[in-house]
Protein backbone atom coordinates (compact mmCIF):
# COMPACT_ATOMS: atom_id res chain seq x y z
CA UNK A 1 0.00 0.00 0.00
CA UNK A 2 2.83 2.37 0.91
CA UNK A 3 4.26 1.78 -2.55
CA UNK A 4 0.99 2.91 -4.14
CA UNK A 5 0.97 5.98 -1.88
CA UNK A 6 4.51 6.79 -3.01
CA UNK A 7 3.45 6.45 -6.65
CA UNK A 8 0.54 8.84 -6.05
CA UNK A 9 2.79 11.37 -4.29
CA UNK A 10 5.11 11.21 -7.30
CA UNK A 11 2.18 11.92 -9.67
CA UNK A 12 1.23 15.00 -7.61
CA UNK A 13 4.78 16.40 -7.50
CA UNK A 14 5.33 15.65 -11.22
CA UNK A 15 2.07 17.46 -12.04
CA UNK A 16 3.45 20.57 -10.35
CA UNK A 17 7.02 20.37 -11.65
CA UNK A 18 5.95 19.99 -15.28
CA UNK A 19 3.22 22.62 -15.37
CA UNK A 20 0.11 20.44 -15.11
CA UNK A 21 -1.69 21.09 -11.79
CA UNK A 22 -1.02 23.13 -8.62
CA UNK A 23 -3.08 24.00 -5.59
CA UNK A 24 -5.15 27.14 -6.09
CA UNK A 25 -3.91 30.36 -4.41
CA UNK A 26 -0.68 28.58 -3.48
CA UNK A 27 1.10 31.80 -2.49
CA UNK A 28 -1.53 32.19 0.25
CA UNK A 29 -0.99 28.59 1.43
CA UNK A 30 -3.67 27.29 -0.95
CA UNK A 31 -7.37 26.66 -0.77
CA UNK A 32 -8.31 23.14 0.28
CA UNK A 33 -9.57 20.86 -2.55
CA UNK A 34 -9.39 23.63 -5.20
CA UNK A 35 -6.75 23.36 -7.96
CA UNK A 36 -5.39 25.38 -10.88
CA UNK A 37 -4.38 23.82 -14.21
CA UNK A 38 -1.15 25.31 -15.58
CA UNK A 39 0.07 25.51 -19.18
CA UNK A 40 0.37 21.75 -19.86
CA UNK A 41 -2.65 20.94 -17.71
CA UNK A 42 -4.85 23.39 -19.60
CA UNK A 43 -3.79 21.85 -22.93
CA UNK A 44 -4.36 18.26 -21.74
CA UNK A 45 -7.77 19.24 -20.36
CA UNK A 46 -8.71 20.94 -23.64
CA UNK A 47 -7.67 17.84 -25.62
CA UNK A 48 -9.71 15.48 -23.39
CA UNK A 49 -12.74 17.76 -23.84
CA UNK A 50 -12.25 17.78 -27.59
CA UNK A 51 -11.82 13.99 -27.82
CA UNK A 52 -15.02 13.46 -25.81
CA UNK A 53 -16.97 16.14 -27.73
CA UNK A 54 -16.00 14.85 -31.15
CA UNK A 55 -16.78 11.24 -30.20
CA UNK A 56 -20.08 12.20 -28.59
CA UNK A 57 -21.43 15.01 -30.78
CA UNK A 58 -19.57 14.96 -34.08
CA UNK A 59 -19.78 11.18 -34.61
CA UNK A 60 -23.49 10.93 -33.70
CA UNK A 61 -25.91 12.73 -35.99
CA UNK A 62 -28.66 12.48 -33.34
CA UNK A 63 -26.64 14.12 -30.54
CA UNK A 64 -26.16 17.89 -30.24
CA UNK A 65 -24.31 20.02 -27.69
CA UNK A 66 -25.34 22.98 -25.53
CA UNK A 67 -23.70 25.29 -23.00
CA UNK A 68 -26.17 26.15 -20.20
CA UNK A 69 -25.61 28.75 -17.47
CA UNK A 70 -24.14 27.89 -14.07
CA UNK A 71 -26.87 29.90 -12.29
CA UNK A 72 -30.37 28.46 -12.58
CA UNK A 73 -33.74 29.37 -11.12
CA UNK A 74 -33.76 28.01 -7.54
CA UNK A 75 -36.91 25.92 -8.15
CA UNK A 76 -34.78 23.83 -10.55
CA UNK A 77 -33.00 22.31 -7.54
CA UNK A 78 -36.26 21.70 -5.69
CA UNK A 79 -37.61 19.83 -8.72
CA UNK A 80 -34.40 17.83 -9.19
CA UNK A 81 -34.42 16.69 -5.54
CA UNK A 82 -31.12 18.40 -4.68
CA UNK A 83 -32.60 20.71 -2.03
CA UNK A 84 -34.05 17.79 -0.06
CA UNK A 85 -31.86 14.83 -0.93
CA UNK A 86 -28.38 15.92 -2.06
CA UNK A 87 -26.58 14.86 1.09
CA UNK A 88 -23.51 13.02 2.30
CA UNK A 89 -23.59 10.97 5.53
CA UNK A 90 -20.89 12.48 7.78
CA UNK A 91 -19.36 11.24 11.02
CA UNK A 92 -16.89 12.98 13.36
CA UNK A 93 -14.21 11.42 15.52
CA UNK A 94 -14.41 13.05 18.95
CA UNK A 95 -10.69 12.60 19.69
CA UNK A 96 -9.11 13.84 16.45
CA UNK A 97 -11.96 16.32 15.70
CA UNK A 98 -11.73 15.08 12.09
CA UNK A 99 -14.80 14.66 9.91
CA UNK A 100 -15.29 11.72 7.52
CA UNK A 101 -17.85 10.44 5.06
CA UNK A 102 -19.36 7.44 6.82
CA UNK A 103 -19.94 5.51 3.58
CA UNK A 104 -16.32 6.06 2.49
CA UNK A 105 -15.00 4.71 5.81
CA UNK A 106 -16.98 1.52 5.23
CA UNK A 107 -15.97 1.31 1.55
CA UNK A 108 -12.29 1.67 2.51
CA UNK A 109 -12.72 -1.18 4.99
CA UNK A 110 -14.16 -3.31 2.16
CA UNK A 111 -11.26 -2.28 -0.10
CA UNK A 112 -8.86 -3.82 2.48
CA UNK A 113 -10.82 -7.10 2.30
CA UNK A 114 -10.66 -6.95 -1.51
CA UNK A 115 -6.90 -6.35 -1.28
CA UNK A 116 -6.62 -9.63 0.70
CA UNK A 117 -8.46 -11.41 -2.13
CA UNK A 118 -6.03 -9.97 -4.71
CA UNK A 119 -3.11 -11.11 -2.53
CA UNK A 120 -4.46 -14.68 -2.44
CA UNK A 121 -4.98 -14.61 -6.21
CA UNK A 122 -1.46 -13.34 -6.98
CA UNK A 123 0.09 -15.91 -4.58
CA UNK A 124 -1.83 -18.70 -6.34
CA UNK A 125 -0.88 -17.34 -9.78
CA UNK A 126 2.80 -17.57 -8.83
CA UNK A 127 2.35 -21.07 -7.41
CA UNK A 128 0.49 -22.56 -10.40
CA UNK A 129 2.14 -20.57 -13.22
CA UNK A 130 0.65 -21.01 -16.70
CA UNK A 131 -1.81 -23.66 -15.45
CA UNK A 132 -3.54 -21.09 -13.20
CA UNK A 133 -7.27 -20.60 -13.87
CA UNK A 134 -8.08 -17.33 -12.06
CA UNK A 135 -11.87 -17.51 -12.52
CA UNK A 136 -12.02 -21.04 -11.14
CA UNK A 137 -9.75 -20.14 -8.21
CA UNK A 138 -11.97 -17.16 -7.27
CA UNK A 139 -15.08 -19.34 -7.47
CA UNK A 140 -13.74 -22.33 -5.48
CA UNK A 141 -11.05 -21.20 -3.03
CA UNK A 142 -12.56 -21.25 0.47
CA UNK A 143 -10.62 -18.27 1.80
CA UNK A 144 -11.34 -16.10 -1.26
CA UNK A 145 -15.03 -17.03 -1.15
CA UNK A 146 -15.18 -16.16 2.56
CA UNK A 147 -13.56 -12.75 1.97
CA UNK A 148 -15.87 -12.07 -1.00
CA UNK A 149 -18.99 -12.97 0.96
CA UNK A 150 -17.87 -10.71 3.82
CA UNK A 151 -17.27 -7.77 1.43
CA UNK A 152 -20.61 -8.29 -0.37
CA UNK A 153 -22.55 -8.50 2.90
CA UNK A 154 -21.05 -5.22 4.18
CA UNK A 155 -21.73 -3.32 0.94
CA UNK A 156 -25.31 -4.62 0.72
CA UNK A 157 -26.03 -3.60 4.31
CA UNK A 158 -24.52 -0.14 3.76
CA UNK A 159 -26.59 0.35 0.59
CA UNK A 160 -29.77 -0.77 2.36
CA UNK A 161 -29.18 1.53 5.35
CA UNK A 162 -28.41 4.56 3.16
CA UNK A 163 -31.46 3.89 1.00
CA UNK A 164 -33.70 3.80 4.08
CA UNK A 165 -31.75 6.74 5.61
CA UNK A 166 -31.10 4.51 8.63
CA UNK A 167 -28.09 6.53 9.81
CA UNK A 168 -28.05 4.74 13.16
CA UNK A 169 -27.35 1.44 11.40
CA UNK A 170 -24.55 3.07 9.37
CA UNK A 171 -22.90 4.05 12.68
CA UNK A 172 -23.52 0.55 14.08
CA UNK A 173 -21.85 -0.94 11.02
CA UNK A 174 -18.78 1.27 11.56
CA UNK A 175 -18.62 0.16 15.21
CA UNK A 176 -19.16 -3.53 14.40
CA UNK A 177 -16.37 -3.47 11.80
CA UNK A 178 -14.02 -1.91 14.40
CA UNK A 179 -13.24 0.98 12.02
CA UNK A 180 -10.88 3.44 13.69
CA UNK A 181 -10.11 7.08 12.89
CA UNK A 182 -7.02 7.16 10.61
CA UNK A 183 -5.64 10.10 12.65
CA UNK A 184 -6.40 9.28 16.32
CA UNK A 185 -6.77 5.50 15.98
CA UNK A 186 -9.84 5.66 18.26
CA UNK A 187 -13.43 4.42 17.80
CA UNK A 188 -14.91 7.40 19.62
CA UNK A 189 -17.46 8.35 16.92
CA UNK A 190 -20.36 10.81 16.89
CA UNK A 191 -23.71 9.92 15.35
CA UNK A 192 -23.95 10.01 11.54
CA UNK A 193 -25.61 13.18 10.15
CA UNK A 194 -26.67 14.22 6.67
CA UNK A 195 -24.97 17.30 5.14
CA UNK A 196 -26.25 19.12 2.02
CA UNK A 197 -23.51 19.60 -0.58
CA UNK A 198 -24.82 22.63 -2.51
CA UNK A 199 -23.07 26.00 -2.37
CA UNK A 200 -25.53 28.82 -1.70
CA UNK A 201 -25.16 32.33 -3.08
CA UNK A 202 -27.36 35.41 -3.68
CA UNK A 203 -28.54 37.30 -6.74
CA UNK A 204 -29.64 40.94 -6.41
CA UNK A 205 -28.52 44.54 -5.87
CA UNK A 206 -29.32 44.71 -2.15
CA UNK A 207 -29.34 42.21 0.70
CA UNK A 208 -33.10 42.76 1.23
CA UNK A 209 -34.13 42.11 -2.36
CA UNK A 210 -31.60 39.37 -3.09
CA UNK A 211 -32.80 35.97 -4.27
CA UNK A 212 -31.21 32.83 -2.81
CA UNK A 213 -29.44 30.85 -5.55
CA UNK A 214 -27.17 27.80 -5.74
CA UNK A 215 -24.05 27.12 -7.74
CA UNK A 216 -25.10 24.12 -9.83
CA UNK A 217 -24.00 20.80 -8.28
CA UNK A 218 -24.30 19.05 -11.68
CA UNK A 219 -24.66 20.08 -15.32
CA UNK A 220 -27.53 17.70 -16.18
CA UNK A 221 -30.39 19.99 -15.12
CA UNK A 222 -29.34 22.61 -17.69
CA UNK A 223 -29.98 19.93 -20.31
CA UNK A 224 -33.36 18.88 -18.91
CA UNK A 225 -34.82 22.39 -18.70
CA UNK A 226 -33.75 22.96 -22.33
CA UNK A 227 -35.14 19.65 -23.63
CA UNK A 228 -38.00 21.25 -25.59
CA UNK A 229 -35.94 24.23 -26.80
CA UNK A 230 -33.39 21.88 -28.39
CA UNK A 231 -35.96 19.36 -29.66
CA UNK A 232 -38.06 22.02 -31.41
CA UNK A 233 -35.28 24.27 -32.74
CA UNK A 234 -33.25 21.28 -33.94
CA UNK A 235 -36.33 19.34 -35.13
CA UNK A 236 -34.91 16.35 -33.22
CA UNK A 237 -36.61 12.97 -33.39
CA UNK A 238 -36.44 10.51 -30.48
CA UNK A 239 -34.05 8.84 -29.78
CA UNK A 240 -31.69 11.83 -29.52
CA UNK A 241 -29.12 13.17 -27.11
CA UNK A 242 -28.00 16.51 -25.67
CA UNK A 243 -24.38 16.82 -24.55
CA UNK A 244 -22.70 19.43 -22.37
CA UNK A 245 -19.32 20.15 -20.78
CA UNK A 246 -19.26 22.54 -17.84
CA UNK A 247 -18.30 23.40 -14.29
CA UNK A 248 -20.16 22.07 -11.27
CA UNK A 249 -19.68 22.84 -7.57
CA UNK A 250 -20.05 20.70 -4.46
CA UNK A 251 -19.27 21.65 -0.90
CA UNK A 252 -17.34 18.43 -0.27
CA UNK A 253 -16.47 18.22 3.42
CA UNK A 254 -14.02 15.40 2.87
CA UNK A 255 -12.39 16.39 -0.39
CA UNK A 256 -9.12 14.56 -0.95
CA UNK A 257 -6.97 12.42 -3.24
CA UNK A 258 -5.70 15.44 -5.17
CA UNK A 259 -8.04 16.29 -8.09
CA UNK A 260 -10.13 13.12 -7.67
CA UNK A 261 -12.68 14.84 -5.41
CA UNK A 262 -12.83 18.64 -5.63
CA UNK A 263 -15.18 21.46 -4.73
CA UNK A 264 -15.06 22.98 -8.22
CA UNK A 265 -14.87 20.46 -11.04
CA UNK A 266 -15.86 19.87 -14.63
CA UNK A 267 -18.35 17.34 -16.01
CA UNK A 268 -18.83 15.94 -19.51
CA UNK A 269 -22.42 14.72 -19.66
CA UNK A 270 -24.86 13.46 -22.26
CA UNK A 271 -28.58 12.87 -21.68
CA UNK A 272 -30.12 10.51 -24.25
CA UNK A 273 -33.91 10.82 -24.64
CA UNK A 274 -35.76 7.62 -25.53
CA UNK A 275 -39.17 5.97 -25.75
CA UNK A 276 -40.39 4.58 -22.41
CA UNK A 277 -39.87 0.81 -22.38
CA UNK A 278 -36.68 0.86 -24.49
CA UNK A 279 -34.39 1.85 -21.61
CA UNK A 280 -32.88 -1.62 -21.00
CA UNK A 281 -31.44 -1.91 -24.52
CA UNK A 282 -30.25 1.70 -24.62
CA UNK A 283 -28.64 1.38 -21.18
CA UNK A 284 -26.59 -1.62 -22.39
CA UNK A 285 -25.75 0.14 -25.67
CA UNK A 286 -24.40 3.21 -23.88
CA UNK A 287 -22.40 1.11 -21.40
CA UNK A 288 -20.60 -0.56 -24.31
CA UNK A 289 -20.25 2.67 -26.34
CA UNK A 290 -18.65 4.52 -23.46
CA UNK A 291 -16.30 1.66 -22.56
CA UNK A 292 -15.17 1.56 -26.21
CA UNK A 293 -14.28 5.27 -25.98
CA UNK A 294 -12.15 4.66 -22.90
CA UNK A 295 -10.40 1.62 -24.39
CA UNK A 296 -9.59 3.56 -27.60
CA UNK A 297 -7.00 5.52 -25.59
CA UNK A 298 -4.93 2.36 -25.11
CA UNK A 299 -4.55 2.49 -21.33
CA UNK A 300 -5.26 -1.24 -20.94
CA UNK A 301 -8.57 -3.12 -20.63
CA UNK A 302 -7.36 -4.58 -17.31
CA UNK A 303 -7.50 -1.07 -15.79
CA UNK A 304 -11.26 -0.67 -16.35
CA UNK A 305 -14.26 -2.49 -14.95
CA UNK A 306 -18.02 -2.04 -14.63
CA UNK A 307 -19.46 -1.74 -11.15
CA UNK A 308 -23.25 -2.08 -10.86
CA UNK A 309 -24.81 0.06 -8.15
CA UNK A 310 -26.20 -1.72 -5.10
CA UNK A 311 -27.99 1.45 -4.03
CA UNK A 312 -30.02 3.07 -6.80
CA UNK A 313 -31.03 6.72 -6.72
CA UNK A 314 -34.78 7.10 -6.22
CA UNK A 315 -35.28 8.00 -9.91
CA UNK A 316 -33.10 5.27 -11.49
CA UNK A 317 -33.99 1.76 -12.64
CA UNK A 318 -30.36 0.82 -13.46
CA UNK A 319 -26.96 2.37 -12.77
CA UNK A 320 -23.33 1.36 -13.30
CA UNK A 321 -19.95 2.99 -12.97
CA UNK A 322 -16.98 2.57 -15.24
CA UNK A 323 -14.21 2.28 -12.66
CA UNK A 324 -10.52 2.90 -13.36
CA UNK A 325 -7.51 1.52 -11.52
CA UNK A 326 -6.10 4.69 -9.89
CA UNK A 327 -2.97 4.48 -7.68
CA UNK A 328 -5.39 4.31 -4.72
CA UNK A 329 -7.46 1.45 -6.21
CA UNK A 330 -10.45 1.05 -8.55
CA UNK A 331 -12.66 4.14 -8.31
CA UNK A 332 -15.50 5.68 -10.30
CA UNK A 333 -14.54 7.45 -13.50
CA UNK A 334 -17.87 7.60 -15.34
CA UNK A 335 -21.49 6.86 -14.47
CA UNK A 336 -24.13 5.42 -16.81
CA UNK A 337 -27.65 5.78 -15.42
CA UNK A 338 -31.12 4.86 -16.59
CA UNK A 339 -33.00 7.83 -15.09
CA UNK A 340 -36.54 6.91 -16.28
CA UNK A 341 -38.80 9.98 -16.73
CA UNK A 342 -38.05 11.41 -13.30
CA UNK A 343 -36.26 14.59 -14.40
CA UNK A 344 -38.58 15.79 -17.16
CA UNK A 345 -41.64 14.65 -15.18
CA UNK A 346 -40.50 16.56 -12.09
CA UNK A 347 -39.73 19.76 -14.03
CA UNK A 348 -43.11 19.46 -15.72
CA UNK A 349 -44.78 19.29 -12.29
CA UNK A 350 -42.84 22.19 -10.72
CA UNK A 351 -42.89 24.52 -13.75
CA UNK A 352 -46.46 23.82 -14.88
CA UNK A 353 -45.12 23.55 -18.48
CA UNK A 354 -45.57 20.42 -20.61
CA UNK A 355 -42.25 18.70 -21.36
CA UNK A 356 -43.52 16.04 -23.72
CA UNK A 357 -42.63 14.67 -27.12
CA UNK A 358 -45.18 13.87 -29.80
CA UNK A 359 -44.07 10.60 -31.37
CA UNK A 360 -45.28 10.58 -35.01
CA UNK A 361 -44.83 6.80 -35.29
CA UNK A 362 -46.94 6.03 -32.21
CA UNK A 363 -49.15 9.09 -32.76
CA UNK A 364 -49.04 9.91 -29.07
CA UNK A 365 -47.32 12.29 -26.66
CA UNK A 366 -45.20 11.12 -23.73
CA UNK A 367 -42.54 12.27 -21.28
CA UNK A 368 -39.34 10.63 -22.63
CA UNK A 369 -37.13 8.37 -20.55
CA UNK A 370 -33.43 9.24 -20.22
CA UNK A 371 -30.12 7.38 -20.29
CA UNK A 372 -27.31 9.49 -18.83
CA UNK A 373 -23.57 9.20 -19.36
CA UNK A 374 -21.59 11.41 -17.00
CA UNK A 375 -17.80 11.58 -16.73
CA UNK A 376 -15.67 13.82 -14.53
CA UNK A 377 -13.14 15.66 -16.70
CA UNK A 378 -10.77 16.13 -13.75
CA UNK A 379 -10.96 12.43 -12.88
CA UNK A 380 -10.26 11.53 -16.50
CA UNK A 381 -7.27 13.90 -16.36
CA UNK A 382 -6.02 12.14 -13.20
CA UNK A 383 -6.55 8.68 -14.72
CA UNK A 384 -4.42 9.65 -17.74
CA UNK A 385 -1.72 11.39 -15.70
CA UNK A 386 -1.36 8.63 -13.09
CA UNK A 387 -1.38 5.82 -15.65
CA UNK A 388 1.07 7.57 -18.00
CA UNK A 389 3.81 8.40 -15.49
CA UNK A 390 6.45 5.65 -15.56
CA UNK A 391 10.09 5.23 -14.58
CA UNK A 392 11.82 3.08 -17.19
CA UNK A 393 15.11 1.24 -16.80
CA UNK A 394 17.10 1.53 -19.99
CA UNK A 395 19.48 -0.98 -21.56
CA UNK A 396 22.53 0.99 -20.41
CA UNK A 397 21.38 0.72 -16.76
CA UNK A 398 20.16 4.32 -16.47
CA UNK A 399 16.53 5.28 -15.88
CA UNK A 400 14.25 7.83 -17.48
CA UNK A 401 10.97 9.34 -16.29
CA UNK A 402 8.46 9.43 -19.10
CA UNK A 403 4.85 10.60 -19.29
CA UNK A 404 3.28 8.27 -21.86
CA UNK A 405 0.12 10.32 -22.38
CA UNK A 406 -1.92 8.99 -25.34
CA UNK A 407 -0.46 10.98 -28.24
CA UNK A 408 -3.86 12.37 -29.31
CA UNK A 409 -4.20 14.06 -25.90
CA UNK A 410 -0.59 15.17 -25.32
CA UNK A 411 -0.33 18.93 -24.55
CA UNK A 412 2.60 19.47 -26.93
CA UNK A 413 2.79 17.18 -29.96
CA UNK A 414 6.39 17.85 -30.97
CA UNK A 415 9.48 19.76 -29.81
CA UNK A 416 11.87 21.18 -32.39
CA UNK A 417 15.52 21.00 -31.28
CA UNK A 418 18.32 22.72 -33.24
CA UNK A 419 21.54 20.85 -32.34
CA UNK A 420 23.46 24.10 -31.87
CA UNK A 421 22.47 27.79 -31.79
CA UNK A 422 24.48 28.69 -34.90
CA UNK A 423 25.37 27.66 -38.47
CA UNK A 424 21.84 28.36 -39.72
CA UNK A 425 20.26 25.54 -37.69
CA UNK A 426 17.97 27.82 -35.61
CA UNK A 427 16.61 29.35 -38.83
CA UNK A 428 15.62 25.94 -40.25
CA UNK A 429 14.19 24.93 -36.86
CA UNK A 430 12.08 28.09 -36.88
CA UNK A 431 10.90 27.34 -40.41
CA UNK A 432 9.73 23.87 -39.23
CA UNK A 433 8.01 25.47 -36.22
CA UNK A 434 6.13 27.93 -38.44
CA UNK A 435 4.91 25.12 -40.69
CA UNK A 436 3.82 22.67 -37.96
CA UNK A 437 2.19 25.16 -35.56
CA UNK A 438 -0.69 25.72 -37.99
CA UNK A 439 -1.98 22.22 -37.09
CA UNK A 440 -0.16 21.11 -33.94
CA UNK A 441 0.89 22.57 -30.62
CA UNK A 442 4.71 22.56 -30.92
CA UNK A 443 7.55 23.93 -28.80
CA UNK A 444 11.12 25.07 -29.41
CA UNK A 445 13.95 23.89 -27.14
CA UNK A 446 17.61 24.87 -27.67
CA UNK A 447 18.94 24.72 -24.09
CA UNK A 448 21.37 21.99 -22.85
CA UNK A 449 22.76 18.92 -24.61
CA UNK A 450 20.28 17.19 -26.90
CA UNK A 451 20.11 14.10 -24.64
CA UNK A 452 18.97 16.24 -21.71
CA UNK A 453 16.40 17.92 -23.92
CA UNK A 454 15.02 14.50 -24.89
CA UNK A 455 14.66 13.58 -21.20
CA UNK A 456 12.90 16.86 -20.45
CA UNK A 457 10.40 16.35 -23.29
CA UNK A 458 9.84 12.71 -22.21
CA UNK A 459 8.95 13.85 -18.68
CA UNK A 460 6.61 16.55 -20.05
CA UNK A 461 4.82 13.97 -22.23
CA UNK A 462 5.78 15.27 -25.72
CA UNK A 463 5.35 12.41 -28.25
CA UNK A 464 7.96 13.61 -30.78
CA UNK A 465 11.29 15.42 -30.86
CA UNK A 466 12.59 16.80 -34.16
CA UNK A 467 16.36 17.34 -34.20
CA UNK A 468 17.85 19.75 -36.76
CA UNK A 469 21.57 19.06 -37.30
CA UNK A 470 24.33 19.80 -39.82
CA UNK A 471 23.12 17.07 -42.17
CA UNK A 472 19.85 19.03 -42.42
CA UNK A 473 21.80 21.82 -44.15
CA UNK A 474 22.97 19.36 -46.83
CA UNK A 475 19.83 17.27 -47.58
CA UNK A 476 16.95 18.92 -45.63
CA UNK A 477 16.33 15.80 -43.56
CA UNK A 478 15.83 15.77 -39.76
CA UNK A 479 15.78 13.15 -37.00
CA UNK A 480 12.32 12.30 -35.68
CA UNK A 481 12.48 10.66 -32.24
CA UNK A 482 9.50 8.80 -30.78
CA UNK A 483 8.86 9.31 -27.04
CA UNK A 484 7.60 5.81 -26.18
CA UNK A 485 10.10 3.68 -28.10
CA UNK A 486 12.97 6.22 -28.25
CA UNK A 487 13.33 5.07 -31.85
CA UNK A 488 14.93 7.64 -34.16
CA UNK A 489 14.54 7.86 -37.91
CA UNK A 490 15.70 10.23 -40.58
CA UNK A 491 13.11 11.80 -42.86
CA UNK A 492 12.71 14.83 -45.15
CA UNK A 493 11.27 18.00 -43.61
CA UNK A 494 8.25 17.89 -45.95
CA UNK A 495 7.27 14.42 -44.58
CA UNK A 496 7.21 15.60 -40.94
CA UNK A 497 3.62 16.82 -40.97
CA UNK A 498 2.23 13.51 -42.24
CA UNK A 499 4.36 11.39 -39.87
CA UNK A 500 3.22 13.37 -36.82
CA UNK A 501 -0.42 13.56 -37.91
CA UNK A 502 -0.66 9.76 -38.29
CA UNK A 503 0.26 9.39 -34.59
CA UNK A 504 -1.52 12.38 -33.00
CA UNK A 505 -4.36 13.32 -35.37
CA UNK A 506 -7.77 13.01 -33.75
CA UNK A 507 -9.39 11.50 -36.84
CA UNK A 508 -7.05 8.47 -36.68
CA UNK A 509 -7.95 7.81 -33.03
CA UNK A 510 -11.68 8.39 -33.53
CA UNK A 511 -11.71 5.68 -36.23
CA UNK A 512 -11.13 3.12 -33.44
CA UNK A 513 -14.54 3.85 -31.94
CA UNK A 514 -16.62 3.98 -35.12
From TrEMBL:
Binding site residues for substrate: 101, 218, 265-269, 372-376
| GO function term, MF aspect, one | bis(5'-nucleosyl)-tetraphosphatase (asymmetrical) activity
Q: Which reactions fall under this protein's catalytic activity?
A: tRNA(Gly) + glycine + ATP = glycyl-tRNA(Gly) + AMP + diphosphate
Q: Name one GO biological process term.
A: diadenosine tetraphosphate biosynthetic process
As given in the record, the signal peptide range reads: none
Q: The organism sits in which domain of life? A: Bacteria
Keywords, sorted A to Z? Aminoacyl-tRNA synthetase, ATP-binding, Cytoplasm, Ligase, Nucleotide-binding, Protein biosynthesis
Any single Pfam family the record assigns to this protein: tRNA-synt_2b
Query: Where, per UniProt, does this protein localize?
Result: Cytoplasm
Chain residues that bind ATP: 250-252, 260-265, 332-333, 376-379
Domain named Aminoacyl-transfer RNA synthetases class-II family profile: residues:
154-418
GO cellular component, as recorded: cytoplasm; extracellular exosome; microvesicle
Q: Which InterPro entries match?
A: aa-tRNA-synt_IIb, aa-tRNA-synth_II, aa-tRNA-synth_II/BPL/LPL, Anticodon-bd, Anticodon-bd_dom_sf, Gly-tRNA_synthase/POLG2, Gly_tRNA_ligase_bac, GlyRS-like_core
Main location as per UniProt: cytoplasm
Query: What EC identifiers does the entry list?
Result: 6.1.1.14
Coiled-coil segments, which residues?
none
Give the quaternary structure: Homodimer.
Please explain the role this protein plays, according to its UniProt record.
Catalyzes the attachment of glycine to tRNA(Gly).
Family assignment from sequence similarity: Belongs to the class-II aminoacyl-tRNA synthetase family.
Name-wise, this protein is Glycine--tRNA ligase
Q: Which organism is the protein's source?
A: Muriicola jejuensis
Q: Give me the gene this protein comes from.
A: glyQS
Amino acid sequence: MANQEDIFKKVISHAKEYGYVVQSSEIYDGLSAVYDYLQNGAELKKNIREYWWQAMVQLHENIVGIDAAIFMHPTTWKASGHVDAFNDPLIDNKDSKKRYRADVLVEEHVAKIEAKIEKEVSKAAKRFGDAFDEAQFRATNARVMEYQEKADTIIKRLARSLEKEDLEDVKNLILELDIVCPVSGSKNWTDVKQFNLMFGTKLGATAESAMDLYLRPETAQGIFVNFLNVQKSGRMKIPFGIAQIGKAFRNEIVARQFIFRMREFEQMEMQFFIRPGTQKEWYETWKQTRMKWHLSLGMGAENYRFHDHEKLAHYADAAADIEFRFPFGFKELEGIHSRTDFDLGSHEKYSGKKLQYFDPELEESYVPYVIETSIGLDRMFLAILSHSLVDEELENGSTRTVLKIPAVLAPTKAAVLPLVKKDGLPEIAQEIMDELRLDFNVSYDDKDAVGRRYRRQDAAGTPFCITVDHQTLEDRTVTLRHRDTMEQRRLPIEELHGAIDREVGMRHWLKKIL
